[in-house]
Amino acid sequence: MLRPERMSKVSVTGSRGVMPTVIETVHDLSLVHLSDYDGSWEGFDNGDPIEGAENASEKLVTVRALESTLDLSADEAEPGTLEDGWEQRLEEIRTRINELDDRRAETNDELRQVNEKIDRVAPFAELGIDLDLLSGYETVDVIVGEGSLEEVEAAVSASDDIRAFETFTGGNVVAIVAAPAESADESPIDDALVGVEFTRYEVPDTDQSPDDYVTDLESRKRDLESQLDEIDGELEEIKREEAGFLLRVEEELTIEVQQAEAPLQFATTDHAFVAEGWLPTEEYDRLVATLNDAVGDSVEVEELVRADYNDEGYPTRTEDVDHGGSGGAEETTEEEEREVATQEAIADGGTTAASGDVVTMVDEPPVIQDNTGPAKPFEFLLRLIDRPKYSELDPTVVLLLTFPAFYGFMLGDLGYGMIYTAAGFLMYSRFDEDIIRSLGAIGMWAGGFTMLFGVLYGEFFGMHFLGDIVFGGSPPLHKGLQPVYAEYGQTWLLVSVLIGLAHLTVGYIFGFVNDLDHGVADAYFENGSWALLMIGVWMWIFSRQGASSKPDFLFETFSEGGPYPIGFNGFPVMEVFSLPEAIPGLGGLTVGVPLLIALFGLVTMIYGEVQHYGALGIIIGGLESFNVFGDVLSYLRIAAVILAKAGMAFVVNMLFFGVYVVETDHGAEWHFGTSHAPQHMLEQGTYHGHEVTEVMFGGLLHGGIGLTLLGVIVLVLGHIVVLLLGITSAGLQGIRLEYVEFFNRFYEGGGRTFEPFGIRSDDEN
To answer: What is the spatial distance between Cα 415 and Cα 535, in angstroms, rounded to a whole number?
Structure first.
């Protein structure tokens, strides 16, 4: 659907006594996106949480902490209901898990210390000196560390505070034993090593040898790891036994907390409450019927607004709504309070609905994108920017119709398309995350169009035999890389421009529809004038006026004798009038229909800019008018990617198979050496009656076993690179055309997500 799902604003008014029942009923329906009361009504305050909310919140925090400890996921939940005594069971589980978690933390902490000790003693093992020999001396200092032996000895030898020293080494570890001079400070070795890159190690406090010390530590490490395995096993057993229970408790507590805190969004007094929110218009009757069944005449349900909205979220067109409410309030006091509130809101300039009821909490409607199954995954591409506003057209369907087609048209290869489709299917079928499934579905669509155009191009991993198989000769499309098909390259330039004109025109139409709320005139000046200017300029470019100064392929591509002879050789001038000869530079210029359209579009576009910027709008409009030329030329990137990807695939195949050149009446043909080596074909001299003129590359396949094996690697890796670059080139360029060129014509985004009060499935909006 091009419009988000139609929304209605409703109010539910009733006595405080039935508020818990109303909350529970609305929560179970999961239909209403609640609006926050802004405190603007005199005598009405935001409600207080229902009794028990704090206790339920604390338990919910506890349950979620336990789930985090057990690493539980929602898909491990089992259907069922909570039995009596669940709170005691929860407390027992909490106690067991917390004890095990504390033990695990203590064990991990000790294991960390053991590992640190093992790491610290490793350098001493390299020295091969018992640890008790490296400390405990009164007359000499001993330091062990890692550094350059030469630099250490030089620094210690140069120190006046050391009268004698000895070094011991093992690997990069150096032990220094030094006798300090009588006048030396407390740490003469440390002072001597200032400026030397030296990492000092603390000597472990033990009488054991390094090997024995490490052996004991390794034994303790194994004991601790065994304890951790036991703890993890116990936690895993609790997870197996209690996962379903904990997830059910979380669900129940979540519901309880949501319901208990709902009054915070209501306007309340001591006797009454008013709640407002948004729901799909088609669901209004179900809401009324369900509340009537639950509380009868104790509440009144009103549909306040069913309307289109402008950019600020205010109604611009309100339909008559049948307010067949469920009944009045029970007490006169409540009636009076609501009447006072209504009068206060109206006095403050509140917006009123058709029946005169006040829309108390003005907020923009939330958005439900109402797209069909095939278009649904493309909402992901749209949300990369932002969700559409309620007042905007939803371009998801246009993304479905254009992005995969752009992608397939640019790559156009049956082999690559099969891989894209298979990869998309795996992502769609093997994962549960909505984002990955959406990417998978988009990949299948893009892969499908790549296969379709691949058949039309007659290409399979850059090879051209498919055209012979499917079409018995030349396929209907050629990418235009070879000289013999160069005119097709020019064709894709024109086709890219035509695609751009069509795409941008749709964008201007969308913008026109979006701006109709401001009036037809404003919608035209903002969008229609630009569209007319663009169409007029490009009609003139494709017209015969001044044809001698324009490229010939503009008129030859679709004319008789062109690649696709549909009979178009340029628009006629269709003269309307000629400018007077007296006008400098333009004297005698013939103004035909294309120029007249462009001129009218330019004048009205500049007038629209003047409305925004005053006299400055003349300059701004004049400068921006060139955009209608440049924006369309942006679509030439489609033709560029077609040729670039074709060239990359061609080079990969050329390196493996080799290529020989055949001269034909229409230009040079390039042929891969699949059945015969290119050099053999050159020696033969002809191919299908045409002269073989040169070998472009001999091909690794024909150069012996070693080169063949290298060629296989080049072939596989080369096509993988082309495959991946297809995503970054065709994919990103296609996205850019959608986001930058198309969306800029009409799309702002910034819509609110529809989040109904209640429990929703993961696949809902």
So the answer is: 38
Q: Which residues contact 219 (CB under 8 A, 6 or more apart)?
A: none
Distant-in-sequence, close-in-space partners of 523: CB < 8 Å, separation ≥ 6: 511, 512, 513, 515, 516
**Rounded distance, CA 41 to CA 267, Å?**
8
Q: What is the DSSP string of 691-747?
A: EEEEEEE--GGGS-HHHHHHHHHHHHHHHHHHHHHHIIIIIHHHHHIIIIIIGGGT-
DSSP string, 417-441: HHHHHHHHHHHHHH---HHHHHHHH
Q: Which tokens hold the place of 591?
A: 């103004």
**pLDDT digit string, tens, across residues 71-87:** 887 666 565 667 778 88
**Considering only CA atoms, which of 567, 566, 587, 565 is closest in space to residue 578?**
587
Q: Where are the alpha helices (H) located in 297-331, listed in sequence order?
A: none
Q: Mean pLDDT of all residues in the chain?
A: 83
Measured CA angle at 701 (ends 695, 706), to 5 deg: 125
Q: CA neighbours within 13 Å on the CB side: how many for 417?
A: 27
Residue type, 663: E
Q: At what angle do helices 284-295 and 19-29 cross, to 10 degrees?
A: 140
The per-residue pLDDT for range 92-136, each reduced to its tens digit, is 999 999 999 999 999 999 999 888 877 777 666 666 676 666 666
Q: State which H helix or E strand residue 299 sits in.
A: strand 299-309
